[in-house]
Amino acid sequence: MKELLKIINERRSSRMPFDMGKEVPEKDLLQVLEAARWTPTAHNMQNFEIIVVNSKKQLEAIAGIKRGISEAFVRENYNYLSFSEEELKKKKMGIMGTMFPKSWQNPNFKLSDLGKEPDSAQRPVPSAPVLMFVIYDSGKRAPASEGDFLGIMSLGCVMQNMWLMAHSLGLGVQILSSLASEDSVVELRKILKFKLPWKIGFVIRMGYPSAKQQPYLRVRKDIKDFVHYNYFENRSND
Ligand SMILES: Cc1cc2nc3c(=O)[nH]c(=O)nc-3n(C[C@H](O)[C@H](O)[C@H](O)COP(=O)(O)O)c2cc1C
User: Does residue 177 have its Cβ closer than 6 Å to ligand 1?
Assistant: First the structure.
């Protein structure tokens, strides 16, 4: 087993094509599910279930789903974009704007701009040999947790456990938040046959990258940028 911090550091988002001819072995799938199983959750409520989709028929049905976008999403997304590596390195947070359609790189984006750029309007679901839908029962919540904040945090722990395990097995992972959008969920409920109170927590796309993953600039704040010692104003541990 690689050193934990190395796995944490090397884990990344695989926003790239996966090899559709290369199935994820059952034993690796089970390891990812085992990692999910041992996730810490608030009150050990284990507030999630997972729909593993790996049949051709189901994957094809999901591939046909339209991932609509909202004006609010694109405009808020803009706040996290950088347009050069220098800018990204300086900000130490966010992502490169160039990975998005041209129309998304405009702070005054309007939905009508999409018509001018067909690719950005209805982005097809990127293919993958395995999709995992992590769902949760929205009728329950962590005890006295407003908005089920603690329950939702627990889902984040599930995501991280699964992602780190998949990465350590050489699998590429991408989170597809757009599949949890209202429009997509209507379609997904029909295909995957899950009803309320079950809702989608997050969706993982998983497989073996079909080409060597191109390195891309990943930035993080430095420890000194987010840590306070003993009281908020104090940034140093002297
Ligand atoms: C809750 C959550 C939702 C995310 N949604 C998406 C997504 O919809 N599409 C995507 O490509 N990446 C998504 N990501 C990945 C982040 O954009 C990514 O982790 C971040 O930019 C850091 O890059 P890295 O994963 O390469 O370190 C999501 C991550 C988290 C934790």
Answer: yes
